[in-house]
Design goal:
This protein is α+β, with helices and mostly antiparallel strands. The chain has 27 helices and 22 strands. The protein starts with a helix and ends in a 6-residue tail after the last helix.
Length: 774
Amino acid sequence: MNHNAARLRRRTATAVSRWLEPVLLAVTTAALTGGGIAWLADAHALANLFWALGTAAAIAPAVGWVVAALRRGHAGVDLIAVLALGGTLAVAEYLAGALIALMLATGRALEAAAQRRASHDLRALLEHAPRSAHRRTDTGVVTVPLSEAAVGDLLVVRPGEVVPVDGWVESAVAVLDESVLTGEPLQVERPHGEGVRSGVVNAGGAFELRATATERDSTYAGIVRLAEQAGAESAPLVRLADRYAAWFLPLTLLVAGLAWLISGSAVRAVAVLVVATPCPLLLAAPVAIVSGLSRASRLGVVIRDGGALENLGRARTLLLDKTGTLTGGRPRVLDVVAAPGSKPAEVLRLAASVDQYSPHVLAQAIVDTARERKMELSTAMNVVEEPGRGAAGTVDGHRVAIGRPRNSQARPAWAKAVENRALLDGAAIAWLTLDGRPTGAVLLRDPVRHDAPRTLRHLRTAGIERLVMLTGDRAAPAREVAAVLGLDEVRAELGPADKVAAVHAEREHAVTVMVGDGVNDAPALAAADVGVAMGARGATASSEAADIVLTTDRLDRLADAVAIAQRARHIAVQSALGGMLMSMAAMAAAAVGLLPPAVGALLQEGIDVAVILNALRALRVDQAVRPALTPAAEALIRRFAAEHDDLQDVLDAVRTAADRLSDTTGPEALAAVEQTHRLLTERLLPHEHAEESQLYPALAPVLGGPEATATMSRAHTEIERLSRRIATHLQLARSGDGMAPEQLDDLRSCLYGLNTVLRLHFTQEEENYFSLAP
């Protein structure tokens, strides 16, 4: 009831202000103008009457604003304006009173206009919300209220419509504009079976959607709830102003009292009150903070209120969950290992052929990788899945099993090497057996997000002094992720209560931000000064508990949000302090009689306009947040990122050839090296040359010049040098009687070195370059 009553009061106040502010502006403008005309016509008494009426017209609204501020627990700095208005009437400074009235009305109108402009994107979220859905039934398509859409319904989304609930595409393909959620303007295609979030717009033809969530549980509903709170909870926006008002208000009264006491002139006291009218203090902070909220919303960052934005701008400690925050939250294939006599590509193809029928998360990762590498999967027959073991079926006439081993027989040497590597890399193993014989293994790991290293570097630059991981995962994989990202501390194997305790401990030392994405993170998000939820996958409990929600699944939006918060807070402080300093200088001049009330009122009007315009700078796009890519550069990034996925089998072949040379020096090993060299020549080196000649020149202007890509160019040189060295070894082997003993060590070193350089180079490009594109 209290919540509904408060909402009703806010709506009533908003409705009243919609007509009160423009009416007051019109009345005070008319009074000042009418008085001016009368003064020019030598009708001084009539002029004073006009100005007095304009002054009196502003007193009642000003008193109302003071009372409303006091009810919200604010200092009520409009009290200075009320005293100034009353003082001008008391000492018959009617022109000054009319100018103050016009200044107050103009300031209120400017604030309303600024907030309308700054909060446009937040309002757009609410206006964009769908209200109905088109449900396909046996008799046709019927339109139903969105609240009646149920999980499992088959819905039709027509061209230009907003997707009403979360679901997956039933049609062949859906062309979508996801800019409302992601901030990215490019259209995307979602094929059959791929998930679609509510709130995105159908930019193509009509398509069918299978609902996987109700209206309340869908992504957009959670975002709308946050936007409603952001729009309704305006009180925290003036917290910054309240802190300054705590000393500015008594200082103003003290100066006015001393001016009156020392000079004996009440006019001087009124002049002090006139130039101290705190419109800069009242307007600058809210306008800058609301502008920051608007800027953040355009990038897919929904912030509940101005208080959260202020705290984010002051944060010095960042706590991060691991899974789904620093990592992608989904396992990916790390490597494919084949037994001697087999090929990694065939191991992956057979594994995916069986796993394509399994709903297990590891199986899905294997299938996704095979499809990314454009492998043609076979149809598996008689597929059975044993919980905790994996799946087995008949593929191309052979019995294939993928998962945990079915028997406890002794491991061959190559399998022991796989187990050792899995232990070192913190990876899971899916073993492949062919007709009961161990044939290969797939290593899987939840990888670090490509954008995480760049994001954390930017956060360090922005002033975040301490980065800590809080995770429920095991210590070994958590420490490895922390080492890659350069975190200050890792706390592993934590439950929800442990995370809350860690948050409380960190809050004792600095303003603390907690970032997470799971239900188990919700208590920690609520306990932090600022809770940030990776909410792209739906309105989970973490989104409900958070102060900020990243509506797109990109961690670098957090760095954007911090930069925006710091900029908005800096501009708010700058505007408020600058306005107060100018007002204090004018107060000093008025106190010694150098500034009459009427001139002081005109001066204060100029100060108001200056600080409001300065506060609106927070709306301006700061290109330093993230380099702006040209469409051509973005297209090149997407192209080469796809080629990286396609070239993973080449990297596997380099490692396999090196391993073969370690096991044997016979014809089979030499054949593996020959095959690897063909892959390098036909696929890898053309890719590297294209990057050097096309991608790097396109990125150089964005990143600050050719020097920004010089290190990567040096890696291209090293890749080509090692490839040539391998080719020379093969020529020597062909011209003689095979591989000479003295060549083996160098050739193995070349292959292992090339494998290491390639994997490092690919990772660096993905982190530094490919993460720039949405």
